[in-house]
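Lecture notes, continued. The same structure-token format from the folding unit now serves as the input rather than the output. Read the line below as a description of shape only.
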């Protein structure tokens, strides 16, 4: 009897399996999953290249002799691509003189593609149908000749899109409401087009929208109000159509079917595993000792804990010898420094962690260290703690964008290291101190040196050109620098300014940015609750006033609550009094100023114009830089005085060294 029951039970189980398999196979019949005929990544890129038009050969590295990506790391063999775990995850085709067709049907076979950038080229016509790449997270189409209205249907299903840049094109018509409805979209730049009509209410949720340069747009957050006719037109165009509803219905049905299939497969696998090893639940429950295994522990349990001790200003090693096991575990886990420049000597994370280090300072983001490697150059390592809300892919992508920047007035990011809790950025070491030290430090800290007028003018011009470069290269950012202040301007031995801590707004936790980043001290934040595209211009103006007056702008600390706490207010109050007192506004320690006051005053007024509270009256960055470039070391007599002062200063510097 028992044998018969057991036999029936086995037959029943067998029948159940057959039924389950039949159900899965029947369901799969409704879902088409291409498995054959799929092109390799090499073939996809070569085929995509054929659809483009270009002069010269910007794709000379795209050939069949090497695969696009290396398996062992994220460094690509081919130019203009990004790799992740040996797969293509991004295309950077900016400024290659491209035209022709952006054939997204070809790119569909790049299943890991998450970012595409074709900015600053010659593409024309309508915007490509982006939802052919539904997993795309970032799309940059700025500075081309795309035109016409945008069909909102091309964004249907783009539920992963986070960043969209359509700036500096010739798009017309109304803004499709669906763009503002995309669930993950935060960063949108549509500036300098020909869009018109009301801005859809759905756009209000975007964190970094830029509507500047579309004269036909109206409604919040712009100050231009819409007419009743425009509002009615928007309401009629934003009503959902039956076609879109039906489209959504069949998509939902398809998703349900796929979910059922996946659940069925998982159930089937679990049933088989359980029958093969009935004691497996006990094994998976934990080790015999009841404690987690070594593999379950945090991979780098304390490889950075020693950094906390360094914040007391001591010289220490970034890693002590007893951390060697932690370093090995880190390497096994793939926790490596990722380099952004090819023309530097490579080193790995263990080398950096073992390097002797000196604390250079502790700012609002974290601490900065000077790391002397056993071999190779001296590096600066910045430790960031307030970036734990950004995902790994987004952080990597933004770092790659920063890695492509190259300007003499920017401190380049050489490498980075990602952990959820904290990030490390590696820079070149600048053998001098910051502008803040020269303006506000004691004589010993600045080597008994004082900045004269021509040097201060040189610094202002260099800073402004660095900011303009960021605006041109990072058009999708509302505040491309975001944290401009004197302590973030390093000076080389020739007093060339070098900007640091730039373009971090997209990766910093938003609440930390609101509290500490300088652009969020701009007056428009109090007026509208949002920073403006001209926020960096305001910070540039404050820096100019600080350089010329020698006074620290206390309002940047967020402590001032009255207008009288504002450095610009103080300068205006001095200039508004007796004209004979105008000289009192300038730093008393500034040398080389005799008979140069007219040019100094011109620069001072440029600073005030950049600090204009009314955003509409405030200059944009291009105009500000043009005005700054016009400032000279005025006249022959002034030049003679400046040259003499510079010679004396150089002699003093030589003697002090």
């Amino acid at each position: 009897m028992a044998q018969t029951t057991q036999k029936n039970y086995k037959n029943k189980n067998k029948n159940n399996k057959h039924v389950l398999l039949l159900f899965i196979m029947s369901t799969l019949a409704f879902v088409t999953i291409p498995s054959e005929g799929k092109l390799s990544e090499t073939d996809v890129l070569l085929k995509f290249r054929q659809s483009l038009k270009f002069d010269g050969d910007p794709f000379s590295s795209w050939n069949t002799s090497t695969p696009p990506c290396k398996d062992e790391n994220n460094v690509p063999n081919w130019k203009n691509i990004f790799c992740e775990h040996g797969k293509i995850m991004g295309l950077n085709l900016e400024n290659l003189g491209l035209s022709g067709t952006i054939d997204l049907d070809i790119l569909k076979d790049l299943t890991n593609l998450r970012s595409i950038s074709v900015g600053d080229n010659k593409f024309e016509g309508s915007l490509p149908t982006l939802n052919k790449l539904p997993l795309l997270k970032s799309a940059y189409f700025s500075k081309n000749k795309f035109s016409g209205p945008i069909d909102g249907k091309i964004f249907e299903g783009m539920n992963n899109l986070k960043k969209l840049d359509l700036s500096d094109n010739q798009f017309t018509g109304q803004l499709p409401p669906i763009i503002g409805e995309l669930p993950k979209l935060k960063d949108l730049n549509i500036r300098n087009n020909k869009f018109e009509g009301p801005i859809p209410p759905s756009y209000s949720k975007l964190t970094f929208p830029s509507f500047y340069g579309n004269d036909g747009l109206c409604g919040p957050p712009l100050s231009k109000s819409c007419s009743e006719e425009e509002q009615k037109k928007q309401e009629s165009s934003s009503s959902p159509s039956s076609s879109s509803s039906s489209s959504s219905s069949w998509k939902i049905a398809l998703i349900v079917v796929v979910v059922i299939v996946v659940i069925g497969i998982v159930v089937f696998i679990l049933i088989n595993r359980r029958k093969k090893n009935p004691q497996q639940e006990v094994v998976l429950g934990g080790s015999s000792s009841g404690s987690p295994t070594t593999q379950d522990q945090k991979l780098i349990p304390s490889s950075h804990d020693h950094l906390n001790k360094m914040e007391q200003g001591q010289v220490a090693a970034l890693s002590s010898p007893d951390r060697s096991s932690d370093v090995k575990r880190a390497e096994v886990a793939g926790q490596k420094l990722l380099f952004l420049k090819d023309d530097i000597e490579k080193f790995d994370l263990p080398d950096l962690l073992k390097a002797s280090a000196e604390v250079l300072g502790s700012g609002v983001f974290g601490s900065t260290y000077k790391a002397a490697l056993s071999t190779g150059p001296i590096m600066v390592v910045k430790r960031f703690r307030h970036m734990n809300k950004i995902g790994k892919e987004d952080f990597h992508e933004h770092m790659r964008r920063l890695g492509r920047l190259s300007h003499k007035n920017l401190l380049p990011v050489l490498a980075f290291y990602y952990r959820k809790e904290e990030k490390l950025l590696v820079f070149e070491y600048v053998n001098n101190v910051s502008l803040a030290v020269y303006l506000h430090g004691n004589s010993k800290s600045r080597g008994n040196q004082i900045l004269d007028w021509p040097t201060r003018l040189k610094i202002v011009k260099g800073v402004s050109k660095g900011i303009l470069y960021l605006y041109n290269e990072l058009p999708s950012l509302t505040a491309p620098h975001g944290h401009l202040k004197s302590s973030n301007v390093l000076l080389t031995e020739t007093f060339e300014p070098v900007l640091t801590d730039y373009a971090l707004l997209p990766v910093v936790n938003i609440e930390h940015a609101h509290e500490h980043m300088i652009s969020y001290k701009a007056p428009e934040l109090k007026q509208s609750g949002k920073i403006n595209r001209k926020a960096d211009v305001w910070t540039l103006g404050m820096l100019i006033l600080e350089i010329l007056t020698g006074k620290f702008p206390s309002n940047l600390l967020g402590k001032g609550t009255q207008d009288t706490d504002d450095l610009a207010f103080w300068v205006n109050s001095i200039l508004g009094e007796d004209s004979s007192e105008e000289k009192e506004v300038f730093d008393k320690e500034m040398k080389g100023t005799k008979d140069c006051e007219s040019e100094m005053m011109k620069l001072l007024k440029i600073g005030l114009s950049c600090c204009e509270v009314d955003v509409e009256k405030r200059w944009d960055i291009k105009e500000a830089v043009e005005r700054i470039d016009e400032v000279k070391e005025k006249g022959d007599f002034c030049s003679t005085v400046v040259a003499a002062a510079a010679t004396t200063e150089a002699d003093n510097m030589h003697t002090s060294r």
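Point for the exam: The chain has 20 helices and 23 strands.
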